[in-house]
């Protein structure tokens, strides 16, 4: 026979669950970092409307980290400047992040030397960017004890970096580049390219003379006309829904 349901226990469980969710939402709001509420962090600069979500990842060397405006730094993102905390890294910024950058959950940006991320770059979750790599020159010494090599990293504006990509020391990524999920990037990537693989290679590129080569398999999206308002967009969406309903009725009748 089915067990009788304890209505009182079920009610208490739902109340407790809602209370836990509400409390966690409050913790997330309160623990997030912004220019207005920096907590214990003292970044070199942090722009308007930029927010680091709570819980934070590892953050140190923040006086040498400069964040632009309107950035979204998701949960558990690591941002570091220098090999370890409490170092004097000199007068210049080490990690520069432009305006409108989105760093996906669990991503790491490790700037032991200069790392620059241009404006309007979007990173998927668990992207790893580093200006430092282990060396293994001495075959008799454990790799972790050998002094690492450092090279600056530069990611141009407007890039999309896919989930799980790795950007290695010395990488120079151009403007509006797509880095496929899981790609491992080193060296120079030209503007308006798509790279994939490990090591990453250019699989598609746009030039003014030839357009996209190889050609895109799907048509490019049509840009919105200048001056269109949100109200007009909503009206168009409603018309599309009505048209779809009318088409479904006609197919059913026919």
TrEMBL record:
CDD domains in the cross-refs: LbH_MAT_like
Organism superkingdom: Bacteria
Source organism per UniProt: Streptomyces collinus (strain DSM 40733 / Tue 365)
InterPro entries listed in its UniProt record: Hexapep, Hexapep_transf_CS, Hexapeptide_acetyltransf, Trimer_LpxA-like_sf
Record flagged with keyword Repeat: yes
Molecular-function annotations in GO: O-acyltransferase activity
Source lineage: Bacteria, Bacillati, Actinomycetota, Actinomycetes, Kitasatosporales
One Pfam family per UniProt: Hexapep
UniProt KW keywords: Repeat, Transferase
Family: Belongs to the transferase hexapeptide repeat family.
GO cellular component: cytosol
PANTHER family according to UniProt: ACETYLTRANSFERASE C18B11.09C-RELATED (PTHR23416:SF23), SIALIC ACID SYNTHASE-RELATED (PTHR23416)
Protein name: Sugar acetyltransferase
SUPFAM superfamilies: Trimeric LpxA-like enzymes (SSF51161)
